[in-house]
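User: Is it possible to get a 3D structure for a protein together with its bound compound? The compound here is tryptophan. I've pasted both below.
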Amino acid sequence: MASRGQFSSKLGFVMAAAGSAVGLGNIWGFPTQAAGNGGAAFVLMYLVMAFCLAYPALMAELVIGRYARANVVNALGAVSEKPIVHKLGMLAGGYGVLVASLILSFYAIVAGWMLSYMLGALADMGSLSAAKAWFTKGSLVRDLAFTATFMGLTVFVIAGGVEKGIERWSTRLMPMLIGLLVCLIIYVMTQPGAMEGLGVYLIPDFSKIFDAGLIIDAMGQAFFSLSLGVGTMLIYGSYLSHKESLPKLSGMVMAVDLSIAFLAGLLIIPAIFVAKHYGAEIYSESGTLIGGPDLIFQILPYLFDSMGGIGVVVAFAFFLLMSIAALTSSISMLEVPVALVVENGHMNRPKAALLLGFIILAISAAIVLNFELLFLNVIAFTTKFSQPLLGVVMCVFVGWLWHRGKLLQEIQQGHEHIENTLFWKIWPHYVKFVCPALILATFAQSL
Ligand code: TRP
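Assistant: Yes, that's possible. Here is the predicted structure of the complex:
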């Protein structure tokens, strides 16, 4: 078997893992959920969820991955030699691979919309109004074409391997993403109406903070945003050197993810209120702020159109930002099944990437063709149901089924004397008892 890839540096890993974490979930999901859930009250609950649930779960995934140095199926299988546990591990890993692939199948559709709106802005710059109309008006052909284009880009990066594909493109694209985001925020903040939006975002409505719906949304958002449960972080951990400290690197990844979600809120919510200033209707009939697709594909374009000449440039920058964020995330999803097929099916990487890209594209096509029936159901099944459930499974494997001494040995690598730190005093009990209980309790509420 070919030797496994590895990230060449700490920075390379952090860029790749943060690239996976930072995606449409941050730039689109987070701000709109915050807007619809009492502004800063949601932001606060999200922070609590991120630190209390997502960080320990992220650590758990990275630790198993680096220990086993294998894809999610073999890695969960390697936690114990007991035949039953071994089988259960492989089964759970297989479920993770399936869920990762399904997440990619809908994610690629949404990312395709971003690409087509980006080209729409370009067409606008060249005053090609018929082309612009085609790019920005939903049609089967357009959706299929751009989903395929986006999947092609994802396959291209993954075919390049860990260092020359994932790491290289993440370290190129992430700084671009941050630069674009900051420029857009500065521009939007100078526009009329932005300050009203800032208030809605940053002044908490505490009456909502213990709302069950808000807590569940915050947990789901935290799991989705940190790419947890399906083996994405596990596989990235498996490419990490034993010289690195896992608690520190996870902390860095989380810090980047939280910061970018927060920054995205500073862009999106003020932008909604600038659009309101220009006359857009930003509240739905029930009085809540418009979120979801209508926000991205109606309110924001309305705003770009009202800005005059610079509007097309801002629109292009915005959809480029979205496309970049989506690509550094989608590659991490495709890597999950690709690593499995490369390692267990003994297929070479480019071939495996292409084959799996095709299979997942076929699923995307099925979703596009049966949109009303499938789109939201696939999202709910994968992100609301499977991800938290698999998160519990990971915690159980690390907390209950793995030999404590082996776990310590693995974490000590890259972080000497960790047994004397607060981290080691808290975290193992935490993943054992608190995480599964909290996730399950939140989950039970949502059913
Ligand atoms: N975290 C990414 C986002 O916020 C999406 C993502 C990447 C993901 N890999 C994942 C979500 C694995 C769930 C599982 O957009």
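DSSP finds 18 helices and no strands in the chain. The chain has a mean pLDDT of 93.
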